[in-house]
Structure formats: C-alpha cells, structure tokens
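Q: Give me the 3D complex with calcium ion.
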Amino acid sequence: MKKGFLLLALFFLPSAGIAQSYSTSGMKEDTAIFDHINPPNWWTGMKDHFLQILFHGKSIGSAQVTLSYPGVQLLKVHRVENKNYLFVDLNISSSARPGKIPIHFDFDGKKPFVYQYSLERKSPDDGITRAMGVSPEDFIYLLMPDRFSDGDTTNDRVPGMLDQSLNRDSMYDRHGGDIQGIMNHLNYFNQLGVTALWLNPVIENDEPHASYHGYAFTDNYKVDPRVGTNTLYARFVKDAHTHHLKVVQDIVLNHAGDRHWILKDMPMKDWLNEWPSYTQTSYRESPLFDPYAAASDKKKMSDGWFVPSMPDLNQRNPFVANYLTENAIWWVEYAGIDAYRVDTYIYCDLGFLNRFNAALLREFPHLFIFGETWVHGVTAQAYFARNRFNIPFKSNLPGAEDFQLNFAVKNAFTQPPGWTEGINQLYLTLAKDFVYQDPMDNVIFLDNHDMTRFLSTVNNNVASFKSGFAWLLTTRGIPQMYYGDEILMDGIDNPDGKVRQDFPGGWPGDKQDKFLASGRTPAENDMYNYVSRLAHYRMHSTALQNGSLMQYVPENNIYVYFRYDTKSTIMVIMNANDQEKTLTTDRFTERMKGFTSAKNVVTGKSLPDIKQIELKPDQTLVLELEH
Ligand SMILES: [Ca+2]
Ligand SMILES: [Ca+2]
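A: Here is the predicted complex, encoded as structure tokens.
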C-alpha cells in the first residue's frame, strides 16, 4: 500500500455516493431480519473454542437470544451502542458435531425468529495439502488480479456496484482481470518456476473509483464480484494446490474502505480511531520504538488515517479485534490459503497484531504470515518482526517484507561504489542479519505493485536486470517477483501507476500473447528463460533454499557469496562494473577448497578453471562448484 496512489485516487472520489450493500455470501432467505451475519459460518475442531458472531439487522439489538445444541454453549450476548447489532459469544467445545445451531431470537411483541447457524467440520488436510505455509523453498509471484488476465468478461462490470468504469487505457479504471484469468494460466506459472501466488486483495472493494487494487475492503467476507465469487476463489486455491502452487492472501487490518457496510452503521463510536478533525498518520514509524518518543507522535503514527478514504480501524476495541481475527481465520479454513501478507503492518496497533498472529498460528501452525514493513533501517525493520532485541515489546511476526534489502539491491546497481554505497549495501545490509530471529523468513524482492519496476530502476540495462534476478534467487530469504518482470515489463512509479500495466495476452483479442514463447520477442524469451532456469534450479537446490550463506567484503565493485549445505556449494559472483573483469579466486579458499571446476547453472556450461573467472559487464554468475 502506498499513499501516493491512494491520495490520487481520493481526488477522484465524488463527495457523495449511492448507499449500496450486498448480502454476504452464504446468506439464505432465512436471514430475513438480518443484513449481515459475520462470520457466516464456523467449524468444529478448532483449537480456540471461542466464537463471537456479529448479527446486524434493523432493531435486532433488543432480542433475547437462546440456543440449545450439544457441545455449544451461549456465553454472552453483547448489546452495544447501536441497536442494530448483537454480538453473540459462543463456546464450541471439542464434543460439538457439525450441523445447524438453531439460534432463537425473541422480540417483544414480534414473531420469534430462529436462525440456523452452520457449523462445519474443520478440514483434516490443514497443514498437509492446504494451509501449508510459504517458506524459503518457495518463489512467490505477485500479481494484481485486475491487471493480469480477464478470464470472464461477463463480470467486467457488475450492475449496482459503484465503479462502472471499464477502460484499459486508464490506470485508475477497472480493466476486467479476474480469478478465472489467473486460473487459466496455472501451467504458465509452473513453466516459469514460481511456487506461490500472491494476489493483491480479492476482497470486495465497492468504492466509486480507483479501488481496482483491492485495498479498500467494503465486505470482509466477500470476494469482489468483478474478480470472482467466494466459491470460485476456493476452487482457485484448490486448483493452484493441485498445480503445486501455494496461495498468499493479501489482508488489510489497518483500515477499511470508507464504503464498508459496517461504517455506514457503526456498532459503536470507537469502531474507528476518530479524531476531532481529520488527522493523517505521520507515516513515521520511529516513535513506536524510540525511547525518547512523545506519546502524541506514537498515537499519530498508529491512529492517524492512512488516507481520508480509508478510515483507521481501532484494533484496541475487542469487538474490532475479534472481527478482524475471526475473518482471517475464516478465509484460511474456507479457502485453504497458505499464507497471509498483511498490508500496512506498521500502522496497526502492535499489541493487537501479536494477538492476531498468535491466534492464526495456533489454529494453523503451518500458516505463514509476513507483513508490509516499509520502514527505513534494519533495526526498524527487525522491530516489527521476530527479533533478538531485549526490549519491552517483542513482535511475533514470522516474516518481514525486506525493504532494506530492496533499497540495497537498487543501490547496488545504480550507485557508484563507495565505502557504504553501491554494491556494499547488499553486503552491509545482510551483515546486520543477527538482529532477526530467522532472517531466512524475510520476503525479498526487486519490486512490487507500489514501486518502479526493477528494469526501469536499472535504466533498462538487461544485464543488470538479470543480475538482480540472480541475486533474488540465490541470496537468503523467500524470493518474491512481480508479474511481467519475466517478459521485461518496465514502468516508473508515478501518478499514472504505469507499474500496473496489463499482462499482454491476458485479454481476449490482445494483439500479442506473451504467455506463449511464440508471442514473445527474442529478448523477452531470453529473459523469461533466464528467470525460469534459475527458478527451476532453485526449486531443487537445498543449498539455495535453506543452505548457509557466507559473503565476502566486496572488492573492486565485485561481490562474492556462497550458499552451501552438505549436498552442494553455489558460488555467486556479482560484477557491478559496467566493464569486463577477471576475478582471481584465491581469496575464497575457505569455501572453494576441494573444488576444481564449476557449472554455470543458467547456461549449463562447465568452467574447467575456477582460479580465474571472466565476468562480463554487470553480470552475475551463479556457479555450482564441482570436484
Ligand atoms: Ca472479467
Ligand atoms: Ca492504524
């Protein structure tokens, strides 16, 4: 999530919109008195026996609630400020069986109403074939559903929704991409060699304009109809798993879209972090850990709004905390997703985040969670993830998006070398890895939907671009790439959002189909094959996935590191000079001892002599050492 895009989107927002609400999927006719029931169902066999159900409907707050169901106990009924809500706490014991819990609602002078709340069986496959987690063995492909492929043109515009735009020439309008389009290309991902798909949010964003990116939720329990349906999403996850592709769901806990149904009729005043007058977050994370910080600076960072159209959720309100946590658990169990990427992580209440992560991981021990930790400095980044600091607040976030290494790799290829500049940044950033509990769980990347594509960062120098990918797929961490990089898509992060262009061939009638080798230019095929070969090599290399890392202080603007385990040793040589170089390898005896030759893992060619290695300008060689 980047403020620039959103601020611009806001500019186009009309001052008033049509109030429009959609029933949450799964709701049938017997919900007549309710507008919303969240979560729409639950499961037996969950580790946490507590469930808080939100019922929303006109004047239902006065109802007396009773139920009788074996193994299920009604703990408490909360009546809140807004009489259109009831929060019902249940204990679902381990003896409860799947079925329909008849929940009785009795009103003074009105007909009683029975709602059959569905209790299903938790999948025995969690942690085995679903909810598997993402690890350094994976390679994540990030794509924006609206911009990847349109597999169903009938959902491009959905009657009744606020944004009726459909214009592929505008970066702010809807383009029609959807889940079906992604499902149509599962073989493509297999050929490329990625093992996990991270989709920008698929949740409903019924906003009037420019919410194609998905970060302004308007119904947490519903896939956006322009992207697909809940059922289709669950099928997509299943199909992806069949194709050995894991699925990362993008979740927003910090804020909601201003047209979220719950904000039109809030349960209580402090559902949101409200201010006497509009107050924006400072986007400055330092006060959160600064020992000298002013409390007001902390509050502004956490409780200030990201942008005016995205009201800030008050996660210290236990009803909000339950709502967000149960929603996240619901999607894992409903669809079987493998990981969460938490948007705007550092803007949420940190105490809440720890409870959120713990609840998710308790229910799904194999699940992986990583957060958008867009901060400056390794120490700041580590503060928001599992770290080795002896400080009062200890984050339990398994993975950070490694923005520090992202800044470093950009500098490596764009700055002249210096004591701490250029290629030294890669070396120096990793040298500080002792701050993390497990730096291997950091998600590393060259670019994403919020930043200039890496090819443009390196001024369209393909040698440097390839070097970037060589680094991405050989250094420590969980590599993540951005859709289209493999076919040399470029784009500058500017207000036009040119980094979110459509994937050519993803739309019916596209002139070129770059999903196929025949539709790609020789240069694009060369890049595609480069990424694919490295990705497939990494897929079978335990050294690159989980092996040890040893790096050497860069000299002469050349950076050398090794990934190794008992099976193999990979030597990576990054030449950041724009001229040819010869590397004498005496200095690396510690790791090269016993090896006499090497194989270039991209070309498959052998290097009979590894004492002197020739390097092309801006080239990164990935060599498997051989005896
Ligand atoms: Ca479509
Ligand atoms: Ca916040």
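A quick observation: Residues 318-335 form the longest helix (18 residues).
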